[in-house]
Write a structure and sequence with these properties.
Layout: H1 6-10, E1 21-22, H2 33-45, H3 72-84, E2 91-94, H4 97-107, E3 117-121, H5 126-133, E4 139-143, H6 157-160, E5 165-171, H7 183-193, E6 197-201, H8 213-216, E7 220-224, E8 234-238, H9 256-259, H10 264-267, H11 270-278, H12 287-314, E9 319-321, E10 339-344, H13 349-358, E11 361-362, E12 364-365, H14 370-374, E13 384-387, H15 394-405
Parallel strand pairs: 1-11, 3-4, 3-5, 5-6, 6-7
Antiparallel strand pairs: 2-8, 7-8, 9-10, 10-13, 12-13
Helix pairs in contact: 3-11, 3-12, 4-5, 11-12, 12-15
């Protein structure tokens, strides 16, 4: 497997030539040229008629005379399946994670019984929790975050899950703090106590790590393709397509797979998004094999960049990294994404961000969420969130440190 060449990767993003240093991959990922071109082409060709019958190992058989766009959704499902190590018939596409979670909650209604319980995460927003919290379950149980570290402690699931539990749902990461949940341990604890399905949103993990739904041992994996620099399309991937047999209709006569419809033009950009990730290194083999090689190399590079980001920012005495700095965060786990939120003592977050913009750095203000408020971020004047992408370099990190140090 070839090493990771960040400068070759940067050439895949034409937007990087505008003079800005983008450090906001968590909120506004840059779109690869391959993807933007593919989406434009897909919209143009979605209504064009294929002159010949199409088929093949990765293509859905289509009769001559049918629009090209009819095959884009199938191609997208195959690509997402390759991304997470599943099969195309286990992938459900939708316009957003919020829509997919809402439809899944309706489809799961036949699984609830009197006394059924659901375990949800206090780290997740209402778009992930409301569909299940407002459903027919008799009891909603909440896994709560550690307010010192912003992490989701896994040990609490041993007490929250029992034989009545039908679903355990949580996100793999905390978006602005970057903490990563111990998915494998949580899932193991759930399996030992119930037959509940485990639903995990892995959208934040997918841009920087290889994913395998079977290694993670989850039942349903969510991926938002937009967070990969792709189109506004999301997917739910089921561990086994036989799981669909336990689901009911979303609305009478329409099941989960039929109810999730996405634009053909956007669906046509999904496979090129996955192909882009597979081509970050000179990998070989099937697309799945290329993805594993490419994302493994990317993961190592991003870990190194992440360590530099945390090390250099934490060395500035007046900088507070949310969930890392201070005694309350002494037990913070080491597994984090290449992103963080920080504040400069005595300097409002808006002022920090303006200084960064003046230095050509694009970041984002941390949202005023209940978690951030409970962690005291509002009391210190807010925080700025930095998210690194596959095109960022050590020079970008150094540029950030110099700009922040001028304020500190």
């Amino acid at each position: 497997m070839s090493g990771y060449d960040v400068f070759s990767v940067r050439g895949l993003y034409t937007s990087l030539g505008d003079g800005w240093t983008y450090l906001n991959a968590h909120s506004c990922p840059q779109i690869p040229e391959r993807v933007s071109s593919a989406v434009a082409r897909s919209f143009r060709l979605s209504t064009a008629v294929s002159p010949v019958e199409k088929g093949g190992s990765h293509a859905q058989q289509r009769a001559a005379g049918t629009p090209e766009g009819d095959g884009f959704a199938h191609q997208a499902r195959v690509a997402v399946a390759d991304l997470v190590g599943a099969t195309a018939d286990s992938v459900v596409l939708g316009p957003s994670m919020a829509v997919l979670y809402s439809q899944l909650a309706r489809a799961m209604r036949p699984m609830w019984r009197r006394g059924s319980s659901v375990v949800l995460s206090g780290l997740d927003g209402p778009e992930f929790t409301a569909p299940f919290a407002e459903g027919p379950a008799s009891e909603i149980r909440w896994a709560v975050p550690d307010l010192g570290t912003g992490q989701l402690p896994g040990f609490q699931f041993r007490d929250l899950v029992d034989g009545s539990t039908r679903l355990v749902s949580f996100s793999a990461t905390q978006g602005e703090i970057g903490s990563v949940a111990d998915i494998e341990q949580i899932t193991e604890d759930v399996r030992s106590r119930s037959r509940a399905w485990v639903l995990v949103d892995a959208s934040s993990l997918a841009p920087s790590r290889p994913l395998d739904i079977h290694d993670l041992n989850v039942d349903i994996l969510g991926v938002d393709l937009a967070q990969l620099g792709g189109p506004q399309v999301s997917a739910l991937v089921f561990r086994d397509p036989l799981m669909f047999n336990r689901l009911g209709d979303v609305v009478p006569g329409i099941d989960l797979r039929a109810s999730s419809v996405v634009s053909a033009g956007l669906a046509g950009g999904v496979a090129p998004t996955i192909d882009h990730l597979a081509a970050l290194t000179d990998s070989t083999g099937t697309r799945r094999q290329q993805l594993v090689q490419s994302m493994t190399a990317l993961s190592g590079y991003m870990r190194s960049l992440r360590d530099d980001l945390y090390l250099y920012l934490d060395s500035l005495e007046s900088v507070h990294i949310v969930g890392v700095t201070g005694e309350a965060a002494a037990g913070a786990g080491k597994d984090r994404l290449p992103r963080l939120s920080f504040a400069v003592n005595g300097v409002p977050a808006e002022t920090v961000q303006r200084r960064l913009v003046d230095n050509g750095l694009v970041t984002a203000l941390a949202p005023a969420s209940s978690l951030m408020e409970e962690m005291g971020v509002a009391d210190i004047g807010g925080a700025v969130t930095v998210g690194l992408g596959p095109f960022n370099t050590t020079h970008d990190v150094n540029q950030l440190i110099r700009a922040v140090a001028s304020l500190a």
